[in-house]
Write a structure and sequence with these properties.
The protein is mostly helical. The chain contains 21 helices and 2 strands. It has a domain of 401 residues: Sodium/glucose cotransporter, CATH 1.20.1730.10. The N and C termini lie far apart (69 Å). Keywords: Glycoprotein, Ion transport, Membrane, Neurotransmitter biosynthesis, Sodium, Sodium transport, Symport, Transmembrane, Transmembrane helix, Transport.
Length: 592
């Protein structure tokens, strides 16, 4: 194997830069006394709740702008039969941030939660919180694994180094600075990484556009010029419109219930700042997607026979998912492609580090501390976090090496986050009277209806055939193998999400009526969700955090102590403002 020395040197320099910034952020946090007397574990999870506008906007944008985002956008634009019409991630995730900012950021930040799972454990109890942790963990782990796998493949194309080695080294760097500095290291490295993505890709685009093998992308947008390649604008065929809508709602609404998003929301200096950061990040998502769209269009406008890539197009080699690094390597000068490679590496790290931190935060707080060791000291929680950061990082790295299944696992787990966690989040924040029985019912209904639809990328056959299903023929161009897959054109993911939400509400009110009317004896309330609502199983608000009482101001930047007593937060009128009337957790609902 001939290693490209120049590319390897460029990658080493970039990785050292990221590592230095991560360590500096950790040192700055440790030596500046961010919040005197603050719990170290909460500093690792949500910083000092003092993330400012500049750093916050970058780290919030990095919630979704990662390796999968820039590579996937370019791939969809390039793919024959898909094109820009099917590149839904930029607008889908941008709208996700807008919706999150409008409806979810304020109630979550104003109540002083530390993780996304806090409101679930507060209302539904520690056992239900543990069940909801499973799809949340799966989503974070498989997302990290998928983007690390994409990075390994990218480096192997341009630098020609071993895939496994590149994945392991990249993961170790991200794990190290996350271990050292927590959210502060993640946030500050996000600033550097997004700058690198933006500059690296934009520098590459003019060189690729001016390559003699590339036709005018304005012409190829509407006219086919090359064999086996359709126009890159693409179109939505009538039979596929419901499937397109299903995927779009998956991105827009399913992009909200992720700890990677809420750890940024909860680290903002105020509820209003959290909203503003969400809106700025939505704009950032659109801007960061533009070079990827152009690179996909360039790939669709290229006569590959005139390039060093050869006469067979990336699509015919089953390398459509690699179109971005292929364009960088074969249509740009070597020094430009290496600069662009740094951008791709940056994109991957900006997602991998935050996902690993998110998973470890939820485990350390919601599983270890609140479910098993409520008396655990802050020092103990910090060590649990450090151990789980390393363990989850190692697991994500191991899964990244299983490239044959990791993408299918990511697709299925992200669907489960949308189908199960999103409707549960709606219930705990906006619907009065839901309880653990409804939550369990919603979980089961959502899981069965989604898994029943199958997952082609995992070769998981459906056992529920929704209206409009059809058999799709998939040809593997390299091996000439033909694979037949069941394609569900019905919007079954969104239907599953709605069924989960409605079943949660319906079963909650059903069991509430049965127990309160005496139809069912109190002894059958085995989940302690209706009759014994304030039992030890349903988390008392004071167990979610420590006993240092503060009031959070939604309208102005603040630097409060991190150990917030949620009991005080819910009782104090000034912290509730307009949330009091709509929140299912407000004191007026205690006697329901």
């Amino acid at each position: 194997m001939n290693i490209h020395v120049e590319g390897l040197v460029a990658i080493v320099i970039f990785y050292l830069l990221i590592l230095i910034v991560g360590i500096w952020a950790a040192w700055k946090n440790k030596n500046s006394g961010v919040v005197e007397g603050a719990d170290r574990s909460e500093i690792i999870m949500v910083g000092g709740r003092d993330i400012g506008l500049f750093v916050g906007a970058f780290t919030m944008t990095a919630t979704w702008v990662g390796g999968g985002y820039i590579n996937g956008t370019a791939e969809n634009v390039y793919l024959p039969g898909y094109g820009l019409a099917w590149a839904q991630a930029p607008f889908g995730y941008a709208l996700s941030l807008v919706v999150g900012g409008l409806f979810f950021a304020k109630p979550m930040r104003s109540r002083g939660y530390v993780t996304m799972l806090d409101p679930f454990q507060q209302l539904y109890g520690k056992r239900m919180g543990g069940l909801l942790f499973i799809p949340a963990l799966m989503g974070e782990m498989f997302w990290s694994a998928a983007i690390l796998s994409a990075l390994g493949a990218t480096l192997s194309v341009i630098v020609d180094i071993n895939i496994n080695m590149s994945v392991i080294i990249s993961a170790l760097i991200a794990i190290f600075y996350t271990l050292v500095g927590g959210l502060y290291s993640v946030a500050y490295t996000d600033v550097v990484q997004l700058f690198c993505i933006f500059l690296g890709l934009w520098v590459s685009v003019p060189f690729a556009l001016s390559n003699p093998a590339v036709s005018d992308i304005g012409v190829t947008a509407v006219k086919q010029l090359h064999a086996n390649q359709t126009t890159w604008l693409g179109k939505i065929e009538s039979p596929d419109k419901w499937m397109w809508a299903d995927n779009f709602f998956l991105l827009m609404l399913g992009g909200i219930p992720w700890q990677v998003y809420f750890q940024r929301v909860l680290s903002a200096s105020s509820a209003t700042y959290a909203q503003v950061l969400s809106f700025l990040a939505a704009f950032g998502c659109i801007i960061m997607a533009i070079p990827s769209v152009l690179i996909g269009a360039i790939g669709a406008s290229t006569d590959w026979n005139q390039t060093t890539y050869g006469p067979i197009s990336p699509m015919q080699r089953d390398q459509s998912d690699m179109i971005l690094p292929i364009v960088l390597q074969h249509l740009c000068p070597a020094y430009i492609s290496f600069f662009g490679l740094g951008a791709v590496s940056a994109a991957v790290m900006s997602s991998a580090d935050s996902s690993i931190l998110s998973a470890s935060s939820m485990f350390a707080r919601n599983i270890y501390q609140l479910a098993f060791r409520q008396s655990a000291s802050d020092r103990e929680i910090v060590w649990v976090m450090r151990i789980t950061i390393f363990v989850f990082g190692a697991l994500a790295t191991a899964m990244a090496l299983l490239t044959g299944t990791v993408y299918g696992l990511w697709y299925l787990s992200s669907d489960l986050v949308y189908v199960i966690i999103f409707p549960q989040l709606l219930c705990v924040l906006f619907v009065r009277g839901t309880n653990t029985y409804g939550s369990v019912a919603g979980y089961i209904f959502g899981l069965i209806l989604r898994v029943g639809g199958g997952e082609p990328y995992l070769k998981l056959p459906p056992f529920i055939y929704y209206p409009g299903w059809t058999i799709e023929e998939k040809v593997h161009h390299v091996t000439n193998e033909v694979e037949y897959l069941v394609l569900q054109r019905f919007p079954f993911k969104t239907a599953s999400m709605l069924a989960s939400f409605l079943s949660n509400v319906a079963f909650s009110y059903l069991f509430k009526y049965l127990f309160e009317s005496g139809t069912l004896s109190a002894k059958y309330d085995f989940l302690d969700a209706v009759v014994a609502k304030h039992s030890a199983e349903i988390m008392d608000k004071t167990t979610l955090v420590n006993k240092n009482i503060i009031g959070l101001n939604e309208m102005a930047p603040v630097k409060p102590r991190l150990s917030v007593t949620l009991a005080a937060t819910f009782i104090r009128k000034e912290t509730l403002t307009e949330e009091e009337d709509s929140s299912p957790e407000s004191p007026s609902h205690e006697n329901e």
